[in-house]
Design a protein that fits this description.
Layout: E1 7-12, E2 19-24, E3 32-35, H1 36-40, H2 48-70, E4 77-87, E5 90-101, H3 107-120, H4 122-126, E6 130-137
Parallel strand pairs: 5-6
Antiparallel strand pairs: 1-2, 2-3, 4-5
C-alpha cells in the first residue's frame, strides 16, 4: 500500500511577532493558528511538537491494535499519551504512556506487544530521538 498525505503551513512576519496557520488535507486542521506564543508559551492554536505528539500517539495506538488483533485479542480500550520534550532547539524525548484494557491477555504479552508496536510504528521509525514507553494493563 502506498499513499501520500498533505499539510501546509503559512507564515507572515518575524519568528516572534509573526503568525501563521496550518491546514491538513482532511481539513481536521483548517487554518489552525500557529504562533510563537502557541509554540513556546501558552496560547490558542497548535504547534509542531503537539502535532508530532498527536501523530505518534495515534500511529502507535493503531499499530498496537493491529498487533493485538493478529494475536487473537480484541482491545476494549487503548489510551496513549505522547509527551514531546523540546529542549534547546531539539526534540530530546518522546514519552509514550499506554493504558489498556485487553481481555484475556497476560501482562507479559501486553508489554511485549506494546514494545513491538513502539518499534514498528511508522512514526516511531521516522523520529530520531529517544522514545520511552510506560505500559499499564487494566
Amino acid at each position: 500500500m502506498k499513499f501520500t498525505r498533505r499539510a501546509n503551513a503559512n507564515w507572515k512576519g518575524t519568528g516572534m511577532e509573526g503568525k501563521g496557520t496550518i491546514s491538513t488535507q482532511s481539513t481536521t486542521l483548517d487554518n489552525a493558528q500557529l504562533s510563537f506564543k502557541t509554540r513556546f508559551e501558552q496560547g490558542v492554536g497548535t504547534n509542531p511538537e503537539e502535532l508530532i505528539a498527536a501523530a505518534h500517539s495515534g500511529c502507535f495506538t493503531m499499530q498496537l491494535s493491529f498487533l493485538l488483533s493478529e494475536a487473537g485479542f480484541v482491545p476494549e480500550d487503548l489510551d496513549t499519551v505522547a509527551k514531546v520534550t523540546f529542549e534547546d532547539g531539539t526534540i530530546t524525548l518522546i514519552a509514550l504512556e499506554l493504558t489498556g484494557k485487553v481481555p484475556g491477555i497476560s501482562e507479559e504479552d501486553f508489554q511485549k506487544t506494546a514494545q513491538k508496536a513502539k518499534e514498528i510504528c511508522p512514526i516511531s521509525k521516522l523520529l530520531n530521538t529517544e522514545i520511552t514507553l510506560a505500559v499499564t494493563l487494566n
